[in-house]
Amino acid sequence: MMRFKHYTIAVNDLDSAVHNYKQLFGMSALSDRQHNNVGNFDAISMGYDDTTILQLIEPSNEDTPVARLMQERKNEFNPYGEGVYLLAFEADDSEQMAQLIESNGGRITRIPGSANFFVHPTSSNFGFMEIFPKTNDANS
C-alpha cells in the first residue's frame, strides 16, 4: 500500500520561493537548505508544525534534469518554467512495490544504496513519482 508523502516544486529562486510560501500560506521552513547530489539541486522542506507539505527545489546548474524540464516549460505565462516536478509516496514495502510495478510492465529507476526509487513518467501518465519506504518520521 502507498500513501501520499509530499509534492516537489521546481523553482528558479529558492529563497524567494520560501519567502512566498511563508507569506502567502503561513508555512514554515522545516529544513535548512540542503544539496542533493543525485539530482544536483538545493532543497528546503516546507509545511506546518512538523508535517512536510511540499519540497521546494532549485537546480544547481543548467545541465540537470530539473533545469532541463524547467527550460521546456518556459512560456509567456511562466518565464522561469517553475511548477510541480515530482509526487512523493511512501510504501509499506518499497521493494515489493517496485517489483509489482515492474511485473505489471512499469519502468522504474533505482537509487544506488537507497530503498527509494523513481517511477518513469511514461509508466504513470507523465506524473514523475518517487517512492520512499515507510518511516515513522513525521518530518520526512
Structurally, the number of domains stands at 1
Whole-angstrom Rg: 15 Å
**The CATH topology is what?**
2,3-Dihydroxybiphenyl 1,2-Dioxygenase, domain 1
If helices are DSSP runs of H or I spanning 4 or more residues, what is the number of helices?
3
Shape: globular
CATH class: Alpha Beta
What share of residues are in beta strands? 35-45%
- Tell me the major beta sheet: 9 strands, mixed
- Based on secondary structure, the structural category is alpha+beta
In the CATH hierarchy, what is the architecture at level 2?
A: Roll
Query: CATH homologous superfamily name?
Result: 2,3-Dihydroxybiphenyl 1,2-Dioxygenase, domain 1
Q: What is the total tally of β strands? A: 9
- Helicity range: 10-25%
List the uncertain runs: none
Can you tell me about this structure?
This protein is an alpha+beta fold and 140 residues long. The chain has one domain: 2,3-Dihydroxybiphenyl 1,2-Dioxygenase, domain 1, CATH 3.10.180. It has 3 helices and 9 strands. It has helices at 14-25, 65-73, 94-103; strands spanning 2-10, 28-29, 34-36, 41-48, 51-59, 83-91, 108-110, 117-119, 129-133. It is globular and about 45 Å long. The relative contact order is 0.19.
Summary, kept brief:
The protein is α+β, with helices and mostly antiparallel strands.
List its traits.
2,3-Dihydroxybiphenyl 1,2-Dioxygenase, domain 1; single chain; 140 residues; alpha+beta
Ordered list of secondary-structure elements with their pairings:
Blueprint: E1 2-10, H1 14-25, E2 28-29, E3 34-36, E4 41-48, E5 51-59, H2 65-73, E6 83-91, H3 94-103, E7 108-110, E8 117-119, E9 129-133
Parallel strand pairs: 1-5, 6-9
Antiparallel strand pairs: 1-6, 2-4, 3-4, 4-5, 7-8, 8-9
